[in-house]
Structure prediction request, 148 residues.
Amino acid sequence: MLRVRCQAEVKVDAKGRAPLPAKIRHALNEAGKADLVLAFHRGAIWGWTREHFEEVVEAPLATADQFDVAVMDMAHALLSTAQDVELDNQGRIRIPARLRTLAGLGKEVVVNSILNRIEIWDSKAWDERFSASLHSSSGRSGMPGRNG
Prediction:
């Protein structure tokens, strides 16, 4: 996806539309992108550009052993929820009802841009996740998975 660093609190309207933060809209526009792939994962809705989703999510699963239970579970849990969405003229995306339900989205949500994706969290769920992340990372002196 696009490397943008931002976080914004936004409101989901009655039709399930949420405005993307200006920095994300600008980066998508600069890249000539007007759509995203959204999927439910780990308590939130994750979003990628279509090309990035195909490269980092679908391609590895497509080349994995389709009969491996872990591969099957990931495909069912992640790919079955994937939805293509387009930005409207006002820079909003319509979050499908099923994804809103899975993520427990209320009217107030937080949109994070994290590395190669966006994440859309219910505001209260994000506060809990962020607090847990701060607690978990407080004892680390370096990046996870790296020595030294």
Summary: The chain has one domain: 6-137.
